[in-house]
Specification:
Elements: H1 2-25, H2 29-42, H3 45-53, H4 57-71, H5 75-79, H6 81-104, H7 109-119, H8 125-135, H9 141-172, H10 180-190, E1 200-203, H11 207-218, E2 223-227, H12 230-239, E3 242-245, H13 251-255, E4 264-267, H14 272-285, E5 291-293, H15 298-307, E6 311-312, H16 315-330
Parallel strand pairs: 1-2, 1-4, 2-3, 4-5, 5-6
Bound molecules: adenosine monophosphate.
Adenosine monophosphate binds next to helix 11 and strand 2.
Length: about 325
């Protein structure tokens, strides 16, 4: 059901862009989809689209890599090694160019190295361009094979480049890169199990969570917040609330919240898929814990209750109640 909901919302959101782009500019549906994605990522709808498509993320990743694998012609490795080596070197040259530009703009060495390593990869846009080029008889079929070969090789090499760039940073500017021990220490500090008991655990410090947290503070009720986003994390650090920085759907994060001793759990996040997971895991950790969750669709209400939520509060229903109350007051 989550998959179908995600697909239908994404399709509804993206379709008008696709057809308009394809019809107006006479480009392929793939290029239209690419531009639609770019436009969507800049719009306020992007968060909603990303939320709804989260369950599809792994499916799309699998689809992408399976398609790339199926399109690739391994014979190119044997027959065109020189051309392939040249294409790979162009990608590496673009990484070097990025490094030089970042340094020339006065940014730190560590940033330039990591950016260079990050850009030493062929993007999926090149597949679309190659297809267009072949369709317009501007490129031979070999171009697609070379691009696919380069993309597979650079995807394989990229993690090693990152490790090398990090090692180089550590040697040249040791203070810029935390050692693995330091990184672990930071993670442990943030994820240190809470000592709170009889506390409220609140997942999400966004529009809803912030209001809940304010109310609990006024009531003097001990509170622990779990939040994953960097910007909310900054707000939390200044708020004085006890918090854990991480994804509440991860075992380690939820375990650090001392749910067995908590008085109630509020799951104030809009992502249906993750909320289900959190509720299910929390129920396993404490069979008697009251859990209040935040569904977005009628279908999700039943789902959350089935996974262990004791109560649900749906924004749309509360809005309707509040509007009706106004009507009652006016009458
Ligand atoms: P809002 O929809 O404005 O109430 O924001 C929801 C908040 O929940 C955002 O700040 C998200 O970063 C946060 N959030 C969403 N999913 C998770 C999660 N799995 N764990 C922790 N925080 C989350």
């Amino acid at each position: 059901r989550d998959l179908m909901l995600g697909t239908s919302i994404l399709t509804i959101l993206v379709n008008p862009f696709l057809f308009t782009a394809a019809e107006l500019f006479g480009v392929s549906i793939a290029l239209g989809a690419f531009f639609a994605g770019m436009i969507l990522s800049e719009s306020p709808l992007s968060q909603r689209a990303a939320e709804e498509s989260l369950p599809l993320r792994d499916a799309f990743a699998v689809l992408f890599f399976v398609s790339v694998g199926m399109l690739f012609n391994p014979a190119v490795l044997l027959h065109e090694p020189v051309a392939l080596a040249l294409t790979v070197s162009v990608v590496l040259l673009s990484a070097t160019a990025a490094f030089i530009i970042v340094r020339a703009a006065g940014y730190p060495l560590a940033m330039a190295l990591m950016l260079g390593a990050g850009l030493a990869q062929i993007g999926e846009f090149s597949f679309i361009l190659a297809d267009l080029g072949i369709g317009l008889h501007l490129l031979p079929d070999l171009a697609r094979d070379l691009m696919l070969g380069t993309s597979i090789l650079t995807i394989l090499v990229n993690p090693f480049l990152f490790t090398a760039a990090e090692a180089l940073c550590r040697r040249l500017v040791p203070e810029a890169v935390p050692t693995p021990e330091e990184a672990r220490a930071v993670a442990q500090v943030v994820l240190e199990p809470t000592t709170l008991t009889d506390h409220v655990v609140l997942v999400g410090y966004g529009r809803v969570g912030t209001l809940v947290a304010d109310g609990l503070r006024k009531a003097g009720i001990p509170l622990l917040i779990i939040e994953e986003a960097e910007d909310a994390y900054e707000r939390l650090r200044n708020s004085g609330h006890a918090f854990l920085h991480g994804n509440a759907a991860e075992d380690a994060v939820l375990a650090a919240a001392n749910l067995p001793a908590a008085r109630i759990l509020f799951v104030a996040i809009p992502e249906a898929f993750e909320a289900d997971q959190i509720v299910e895991q929390a129920r396993r950790l404490n069979a008697a814990l009251p859990i209040v969750a935040r569904p977005h669709f009628d279908a999700q209400v039943e789902h959350l209750l089935k996974h262990g939520a004791t109560a649900v509060v749906m924004g749309e229903r509360e809005l309707a109640h509040a509007m009706l109350a106004h009507a009652g007051a006016a009458a």
